[in-house]
Model the fold of this input.
Amino acid sequence: MSTIKRNQLFVASCLALLVTSLSFGIRAGLLNTWAHEFGLTSEEIGVITSTAFWGFPVAIVIGGMVVDIIGMKKLLVAAFIFHAAGIFLTIIANPSNGFWTLFISTLLIGLGNGTVEAACNPLVASLYPTNKTTRLNYFHLWFPGGIVIGTLIVRFFGVNIPDSIYLSNWRLLVGIMFIPTIVYGILFLRLKFPVTERVASGISTSQMYKALLKPLFIVMIILMFGTAITELFTGQWIDVLLKNVTDNAILLLTLETGVMVIGRGLAEPVVHKLSPAGVLLMSAILAALGLYLLGHSTGNMLFVGAIVFGMGVCYFWPTMLGFVSENLPETGAVGLNFMGGAGMFAVSVYMIFMGGYYDKLVAQQLPSGANLAAYNAAPAGSDMANTLNSAKALAGPHIINTTLIIPLILIAAFVILLIYMKSRNAKPIPITNAAIANPYEDQ
Done:
């Protein structure tokens, strides 16, 4: 039997997550372009972007339920197909079919993103059973890392290029995602995979599903709603919400996610010093402070807010997964993937609601009886366009301040969780088994 090449599998997993994050970062920078070129309202943009966030939970939940049966390799081949098809459909979108083509392509990319996490989260946990939280942070480093790359591509591709040319060349930006997609597809086809940690440990399927009903797991699912919305809604919409407050809104996302890359790269000493529950409490405090600064600042203070917010949300997603994997290991791949699915589902619902709410806030700032679609289609520099921009400059921070309520609630919740974990004096109990303990070939 050939040896599992742990490092190669980990690198391929990071490339697959890079595609997920590039789709997030590049699309976040193109929302205003699509709204202008295809005549879409903010509510329609909200529906399109939310599609990725409910396609994700569908894929991650179904993937989590079948990964032990069909294996991680087949799931990742499916992810490659979803990603490739979604990128292609995005590129061929045009004004006559813009909404539905972007809707379907975003759904496919969301399915690809969810399938990647459905396979790669348990893969990383299986490859590093005694250091799961740290390694999940290293793996998820590539989500903000890809957003940094994607937003920089969008930002600097458009510098000093007339709008007419910029709008006609956004397809090239989307096409860049084909490169890591093809590379990770080839790597996963060549490599041998281990079984999941739950299968290797001998925990039965019935034991796994019973573990999903434990009160602690249910609490973590609920908390995942809040951590995911705080991080992902703000990141996906920051360019839309603050574009009329600063000329460099997309760079706020770049700065925020750059901080996340550094933070996740330094995860090991932070997690070991504070414990996962302590890290989550610290994260909620900083996320709340960052959102407050983003919603109440202008000029350079917005960049300070982005840095603080990035420090806050940087550990949310991987540490939530690591907490469950370490303290509820019997939940297996399904537990990890239910967590991810719950988070993305919450974001999708919140995004649809906030898209409509944002349009309502903008409309309230326009003259009585104004047609929002007509204002959205107004030429740049016209009186209507200037009035619309002023309305959006007021509406965006209002949405951020509304979202601030969520991390404030999380602060209280994580204080309780930290006290509970200390009183329980529970130490992470990694599942050990001869099948997992086999030496990997680190290549």
Summary: The radius of gyration is 22 Å. Residues 125 and 131 are 8 Å apart (CA to CA). Confidence is low (pLDDT under 50) at residues 159-166, 429-439.
